[in-house]
Amino acid sequence: MAGQAAVVKYLENEKSKSSTTRNRESHQKSTMIPDPPTLTDGIEPAYDDWSIKIKMKLEANLDHFPTPALQMGYVQSRLGGKASSHINPCLRSTQNKFQTVEEMFEVLDRVFSDPDRHFTAQRAYRKLFQNKDNFATFWAEFQRLTVELDYSEETLIDDLHHKVNTKMQTALIAEINPSSLHAFAQKCLLIHQNIQKLQIQDARTVPRVIQQAFKPQDFHSKAQQPTTNPPASFRPPRLYRAPHQNPATEKLMQEGRCFHCQQTGHRAYECPTKNAQVHKVSTYDAPLSGKE
C-alpha cells in the first residue's frame, strides 16, 4: 500500500507541475515587433509602408494592445507633424471623438493615401528604364511598379526586354520565348554580372597596355638626350612623284640641274641667266615709230 501511495503522489506532483507550466505559458505575452518610424508628412516614411507596418504590429502584438484605447494611444504615439495635426483634434473632441483605431486610419488614408495608385504606378512605369543602373536595382523597381498594374506576363516579359540597356539587349538577342518572367529576369541578372566582369577585366588590361607602350623611363631618357644635327649622310625619305613627260626635263630633274641654263646649284625660278634676260628686255629702248 505504501508503494502505491508513493506512486499516486508522484503522479499528482507531475500533473501539478504540468498545469503550472501551461498556465505560465498562457500568461506570456508575444514578442514585441519593432516600432515603425514616426509618420509626419507621408513622404518619409511613405504612408503606405508605415500603414502596413503599424497594422501588422497591432495584429501581431494584440495582447499588448487589447483595448481600443490602447490601440489608439499607440498609433497616436507614432504620429508627428502634419499627421498628428490631423488626428489630435478628434482625440480632444467630445462630440466627434475617435472610438476605434480604424477611424484614425480612415482619416490618415484620406490625407496621405494616393487616390489613384494605378495611374501613379503606370506613369512611373512608362518612365522606367535601366540605363546605367545596376540590373538588380532596376528589377526591384520594375517589380514594385508592376504589382499595381494588371499586365499579363507576356507583356511584362516584352517590356523588360525593351527597358534594359543596349548592352543587355544585344546579349539577349538569342533569348527567344522565355518560360517565365522570373526566369527571364534571372537570365538578365546573370548577363549583367558577366558584363560587369568583362568591364573590370578591360579596365585592368587597358592601363597595362598603355604603360607598356609609353614607359616613363623612355620619356625621361629622351628628355635628357641633347638635340644634335643629323649626320651628313642622312637623307629624309622622298615622296613618290610621277616622271616628267619630257625625258630631257626628267633627266635634268634627277640630276638637280636648272631647266634654263642646265647648271646645278639653283632651281629654274632662281636662274640668274633667266633674270638677266628679263632685265635686258625690260630696259631695251624701242625705236620711234614716227607717230609721236
TrEMBL record:
Region of interest (Disordered), ranges: 10-40, 215-243
Residue ranges, compositional bias (Basic and acidic residues): 11-28
Entry-linked PROSITE patterns: ZF_CCHC (PS50158)
UniProt keyword terms in alphabetical order: Metal-binding, Zinc, Zinc-finger
Gene Ontology MF, one: zinc ion binding
Chain intervals with Polar residues compositional bias: 222-231
Pfam families reported for this sequence: Retrotrans_gag, zf-CCHC
Span of domain CCHC-type: 257-272
Name this protein carries in UniProt: CCHC-type domain-containing protein
Origin species: Pseudogymnoascus destructans (strain ATCC MYA-4855 / 20631-21)
